[in-house]
């Protein structure tokens, strides 16, 4: 039997049926009231039947004022989410559809922080007023007051309670990729002088307090995961030594599965991309040569972590996935982009019918390469990355709408569709 097919028991007592996970992908499929929709159900039913032991939802927001993108599901205010409330019943339907095959479905709970574009946030909220400088898309954030931080901790917990009640089988707290909790961890974006800034133990306080509140809300037997950066890959930012220290603190926080990723919007290493070279802290050489972006970091994390480790980022060959499990460095393989075009890939990897995952991101170039020379500037790279994201979003939407996939779709067409959808959905949200 392949290692990929081995079940995994989590510290809380739950059991994952196998070692493949669909990592979080923001869906953009909510209705204008920010409720989950029938499109979520159709999409997640396919992913459930696709064979992964664990599905993690895309960002579900705790604050509808500061979203990651238009079309996010937001549970705000969570206190309104009771049986009979429409948003609550929609979550129930989503959870049911996403677990039809007996797999787990965990809700990723998130606040976008400073990475909330102008068309979904009048004013982003962040640890400090450090603006994200990406093509003028992000306003200057306001620094959160302590009262707001305490309120947000309770919001994460309240949303986790709703997740459990509506049938999600676990939750993941998003503390990676530069969103709110992740931005508190970084000295570049967290310049606070109070108990929530300064030394790492202060910068990590928001995350640790959130995990305690969430655990209290969901009880001891419910899977609780954290997604964390190995490194922000940004000069002066959260770095690997911080990560190793934080993981040791997480050992005593009843975390069931630690997902290790890396990078932020400024250094989008999570997708294998580089940001501005002048700000970048280079990745380890051996990691760059490997198929999985963060594997080398996992080996060192394994030495200090007591909880199981999930790793997404670049896995495309069954042999590499098996070798990573075999090494003992990680326990679960995360797959994201390949499941946009092959939702049943996990089943085929498990049976051996597929040995390879699709890797369209390696060849997708905006305008057939016209806009993406290999020596491309940061802006050119960024536009190409957005084009690729648009391409994957378009496939998520096709799956959600039950349409046949169009693998011939060009990146430029996908990019334009992405822009139209993004602004159109934001406009509909504002009107409703
Ligand atoms: C379309 C898309 C949406 C994503 N949305 C999220 C998200 O909501 N939350 C998150 O933690 N990561 C998100 N990610 C990152 C993935 O979870 C994953 O870490 C990354 O894609 C690397 O895995 P892969 O190489 O298998 O695609 C997203 C990635 C893609 C491609």
UniProtKB/TrEMBL annotation:
Name used for this protein in its record: NADH:flavin oxidoreductase/NADH oxidase family protein
Matching InterPro entries: Aldolase_TIM, NADH_flavin_oxidoreductase, OxRdtase_FMN_N
PANTHER family associated with the record: BINDING OXIDOREDUCTASE, PUTATIVE (AFU_ORTHOLOGUE AFUA_2G08260)-RELATED
Keyword entries, A-Z: Flavoprotein, Oxidoreductase
Keyword Oxidoreductase applies: yes
Lineage of producing organism: Bacteria, Pseudomonadati, Pseudomonadota, Gammaproteobacteria, Nevskiales
Species annotation: Stagnimonas aquatica
MF annotations from Gene Ontology: FMN binding; oxidoreductase activity
CDD domains reported in the protein's UniProt record: OYE_like_2_FMN (cd04733)
Domain NADH:flavin oxidoreductase/NADH oxidase N-terminal as annotated: residue spans: 7-353
Family matches, as Pfam families: Oxidored_FMN
Record flagged with keyword Flavoprotein: yes
Coiled-coil ranges from the UniProt annotation: none
